[in-house]
Amino acid sequence: MDTICPIDRKCASQISVLLHPPPPPQVQEYFEELISSRQCRGIKVKQNGEFGKGVYADLDFKEGELILKDPILVGIQHPSNKIDCLVCSFCFQFIGSIELQIGRKLYLQSLGVSANEACDNEGSSKDFCDTNSADEEDDCYVKECKKLGNCASSSSSNGKVTLPEALVQSLMNGELVLPHSKTFCLPSAIACPGGCGEAYYCSKKCAEADWKSSHSLLCTGKRSEALSREALAKFIQHANDTNDIFLLAAKAISFTILRYRKLKAAHLKGQNKHTDPVELDCLELSLLLEAWKPLSIGYKRKWWECISLPDDVDCSDETAFRMEIRDLAFTSLQLLKAAIFDQECEPLFSLEIYGNIIGMFELNNLDLVVASPVEDYFLYIDALPYSEKRTAEEITQSLLDALGDGYSVCCQGTAFYPLQSCMNHSCCPNARAFKREQDKDGQATIVALRPISEGEEITISYIEEDLPFEERQALLADYGFRCRCAKCIEEETT
Ligand SMILES: [Zn+2]
Ligand SMILES: [Zn+2]
Ligand SMILES: [Zn+2]
């Protein structure tokens, strides 16, 4: 396919350097640093020819033992899930209170159907918390809710009991305290310091970390460092309407730009003499490469080349389908470029790089899941001794009825985990991603499924491993490989 993006031609040589896998010693060094910073000394990443990389046990692990906690490099909560769960935009733990979680969700449910219609008149996103209202926090939630309500699926309010608006409001503003909710204390929600009214955090620490990592460029609020907040709003709207993977790609690009700026500032501080323009060009590329390193590690292919053909697309239309996907990515990239372009990081705005970043997420497909404390709360009430339960349920039962089956919806999104993404698949894995009771945020948690001895490769299953052989292989083809694990070799020959 010919390129349609002028930057692809202009920056061809820098792009090929960026997409060239880093030399093995550099990769090794990167992972060693990462592992030591995570204090999970029981593993190491090794490069192995045919399959690229693998994670190996450096110690013996017992069944059920924790192998790794892997923080998110970049991650997003699915926009549709924002209606169900209010979580920290950086670490993805639930925030606010049980009352706020329930009240906010009921409020959005009540907006459900009609809000969809209102959506058209309202135009695209404006800043809902923009108007000198930093002190009116309750109001801010309501506005945030209205905005989300615009995207609320109409099905969410079907067949459910609706509660009086005053009751819902009193849950949201903290006037009503539910029985036993203190057992499920959540960190209070801190609004984004940039004033977007969209991002909330569990702590100042998370707010600052997110700001430095990517949000300062992607915030739609007053203090945003984006070139154009209107352009940014258009980009976000386009991603919400088409594919939220673009939001994750935008985070990856912002993350790299901000790292680049930081590296450059540190470099310039360290030397006083004037650098000549040729040296400066080389310097900029080497700093960009360094900034890009965490993302350079992941296995990549262009999105429109690696995306699996949907069932409803005929094979004869495959080329047209792939062109359409490429054009969609190009549209998204142009919107993002208008919002956050940085001349010194120009190659990042090539379609080639954008396509490869999205393809990396597609091929690594790592789900972000955090269990809901609201579910735990209702289970706790249900398990109370009879008389206590009866008293509590006088208040909680109507809420549970109004929430319907959705009471237990967990936080869902997509994230890139640097170490987990190096773990290879097996249909008879020795480890799995499993959140224990104490794991309340978005980090990947990997535990041993059976005893693992030192030197053994640690494997997880990317799919439901109990499916029949052919179905497994078909699903794994979407990840771009044919499985040759012991189980598959055995089943293939029988
Ligand atoms: Zn947090
Ligand atoms: Zn913000
Ligand atoms: Zn297999």
UniProtKB/TrEMBL annotation:
Transmembrane segments: none annotated. SMART domains: SET. GO terms for molecular function: histone H3K36 methyltransferase activity; zinc ion binding. InterPro entries: ATXR2-like, SET_dom, SET_dom_sf, Znf_MYND. Keywords: Metal-binding, Zinc, Zinc-finger. Residues 182-219 form the MYND-type domain. GO terms for biological process: callus formation; epigenetic regulation of gene expression; lateral root formation; root regeneration. PROSITE patterns: SET (PS50280), ZF_MYND_2 (PS50865). The keyword Nucleotide-binding does not apply. Residues 41-463 form the SET domain. CDD domains: SET_SMYD (cd20071). One of its GO terms (cellular component) is nucleus. It holds the Pfam family zf-MYND. This is SET domain-containing protein.
